[in-house]
Amino acid sequence: MSRIVVLGVFAADAIYRGSRLPAMGETVLGSAFALGPGGKGSNQAVAAGKLGADVSLITRLGKDAFAKIAYDTWADAGVTPVVVEDPEAYTGSAFIFVDDRSGENAIIICPGAAGDLGPEDILRAEELVRGADVFLAQLEQPLAAALAGVRIAADSGVTTILNPAPAQRLPANLLRDLTYITPNESEAEALTGVAVHDLATARQAGDALLALGVSAAVITLGAEGALLHSAERSEHVPGVSAGPVVDTTGAGDAFNGAFAVALSEGAEPVEAARFACAAAGLSVTRKGAATSSPRRTEVDALLAG
């Protein structure tokens, strides 16, 4: 079984659906509400676990009702928690608005206890990181934790993936330690200054990311799939449709978790990206974030069809 270690945040997602976001001072009647598991790190760990990998998640939680949602979610997906519980902090939470018409979303996240994740959390799990096939991180927790995790993993020959969300300026030493960086279009623009709106501009952004020091970029393009871009190749991997789009909230996390799984199993990068596109394609046909991630049999069936 492939071994994946994820560093990241759990957040209880408060999901509101409606026709539009309210203006300041305005109240808008919504159409639906749900409370469920979220946070990019947790979502990506859950996505990988549901696809059959041996996954450990390094994070921090409060001691509250939202923490129970986290543990229940991880148990269902087969994710092993590597958790520090902080009774003085709260478990992370996120406000998610989903547009009824388009399925697009807007998000505010408060990491809570996971906002205190640091290098000491990585050092506590150092042997776990060194023994992984893939180490996966995002940027909802402090950058110092991601720096420490990626450095230890890279030093041990572990494949490293950074999903740079939310986007921020990244130090050169972190970029050099990455095997893959996986921004979406807006994150690629924030990192490079190149507005991504088609394959040609995605390749320009990919070149800019390579110039910053990364080995390879996988720029996700929504329904259009993804661009795998390195010094040796630049290949478009088309999106994989699994039905009408209902909610895009968890698509990027499903992609990253699936990409990590395929790489950990020895898949060639383009094959791994196609597997990830199929997982994302299934994810958008369902509501929710972690709850929308597909099982392995579903992804295999979609690709086989």
Automatic annotation (TrEMBL):
Signal peptide interval: none
Chief location bin: cytoplasm
Protein name, entry field: Ribokinase
Organism, as annotated: Algicella marina
Record text on subunit structure and interactions: Homodimer.
Record text on cofactor binding: Requires a divalent cation, most likely magnesium in vivo, as an electrophilic catalyst to aid phosphoryl group transfer. It is the chelate of the metal and the nucleotide that is the actual substrate.
CDD domains, per the entry: ribokinase
Keyword annotations of the record: ATP-binding, Carbohydrate metabolism, Cytoplasm, Kinase, Magnesium, Metal-binding, Nucleotide-binding, Potassium, Transferase
Known pathway: Carbohydrate metabolism; D-ribose degradation; D-ribose 5-phosphate from beta-D-ribopyranose: step 2/2
Enzyme Commission code(s) on record: 2.7.1.15
Origin superkingdom: Bacteria
Notes on activation and inhibition: Activated by a monovalent cation that binds near, but not in, the active site. The most likely occupant of the site in vivo is potassium. Ion binding induces a conformational change that may alter substrate affinity.
PROSITE patterns, per database record: PFKB_KINASES_2
Catalyzed reactions: D-ribose + ATP = D-ribose 5-phosphate + ADP + H(+)
Gene name of the encoded protein: rbsK
Family as reported in the entry's similarity comment: Belongs to the carbohydrate kinase pfkB family. Belongs to the carbohydrate kinase PfkB family. Ribokinase subfamily.
Catalytic residues, chain numbering: D253 (proton acceptor)
